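[Solved] Which block belongs to which protein?

Original post:
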Amino acid sequence: MIWQTTRFSLDLGEPRVMGIVNVTPDSFSDGGEHATPAAALAHCERLLKDGADMLDIGGESSRPGALPVGADEEWRRVQPVLAGALSLGCAVSLDSINPEVMRAALDMGVDIVNDINALRTPGALDLVAAHASCGVCLMHMRGEPRSMQVDPRYADVVGEVGGFLAERAQALRERGVAAQRIVLDPGIGFGKTVAHNFELLQRQAELLRLGYPLLVGWSRKSSLAAVTGRASGERLVASVAAALAAVQRGARVLRVHDVAATVDALKVWRAAGLVTRSGTIES
């Protein structure tokens, strides 16, 4: 299983770890910690040393209630960090919904566009489709960050999320984008209740039937606090547990804040012979 990106063909035969780099003052977990280019690049290097396979760099918070950031400001934040990260020898992902920022990043040589809006912003779909080889992650989100957690409802959350992701992937395929360039994300915490999020995890195998690799982002999410009673700064163990549960159910990319702990957990599973090449647990 390969994820084709601008510079790399990423082997997803085993789970891969995507390290989160928030170049923002207001992200839900680490806002402001890496807001300067120097701090963000130091964080990139640390995540790679900890074992990250790729980096996901974003300049606009998508926490519940977050307000939009203009394209100029978003690009000001991410440009120097992307430039530095591209020299580190790993796949670099841009986390953005803005086509102007996507275009500038792809022109720079960025490998992946990770869009929580699944390329629904006017111009985004055609922009990515026109690129020769960039990877893309399409995520499901109900509404927008400022309003997504206001009474989200579904008749069947897995069916509706799966239907949406299938439609967005098909829109790319119809524009000539190869299936190997596409990864899907069910959008844990984006317009979903705690029950919705755990149902998506429990029934994750149904999403795999769409035929694309899954990227999941359980890291430090509030749903983990809801079941553990732990405060926001105490979600490391729960985050790793959720990541491994997602891998057990076939996830291929784990988007995480705590790279070292996640990588160590996957190493133990591999050493114990629990994780097969298909990503499932051996009985």
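(Second protein starts here: sequence line, then its structure tokens.)
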Amino acid sequence: MATPQQQIWATGDFAMVGTAIVIVGELLCDSVPVHAGDRVLDVATGSGNTALAAARRGCQTTGIDFVPALLDRARERAAAERLKIEFREGDANFIPYGDESFDVVLSTFGSMFADPARSAVEMLRVCRSGGKIAMANWTPGGYIGEMFRLTALFAPPPPDTQPPVLWGVPDVVRQRLGNNVTEIRFVERKLAMRHYSPESQLEFMKSYFGPTIRAFQAAGERAPELAAAQLDLTRRYNKSGDETLLMYADYIEAIAVKA
């Protein structure tokens, strides 16, 4: 039986959303940096953005996700580029590989949505000593952090759930990885997000982004109120200077060396 998180991310089609964040995986692979021949795992790979980036750099790449339809899209993309990548169904909380199986463990806006304690343990477990764990995580500040807080007003998370964006706070990342890493560094980045207009961006998210779809479903009769609040937020961050949309969403790269 699918977990609530699986149901959320299987709603809509995150592969469509993923086309706008391809650059994040490319930058993360360069920040690590990965090397040709590295055994790389991309956790919560979605439609394969970061796994593809690693494979383009000559890595022996594996990607896991718990949404089979997204893995199908990832396999299509790898085949189109003639890249050899193993895509396998798997949960960030229970990675289906043995201890120290990988030189580099990556996750782009993926593991941050899993159980924080379990996912941290699992990423550390499957990474070899001296290997690297690297995550791209949304921050509490900025557009995405505000968007998640807004949708939580209409679709509250389960009690005692920690906000995923805490993975975007350096002190929290240090605490969660603890003495299991010998060093950790952070890179602050901004992702440019573009669309035809704030209104078209909202309709796009309502069609393809699982958390947004579920929030509107949960809002029920208050859905127009959620839509108005979302548009107000988007317009406030819009930097285009015309009727189109250009926003910059804050995220951090956290790159750690396993002890």
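Accepted answer:
You had them paired correctly. Confirming on the second one: The chain is about 45% helix and 25% strand.
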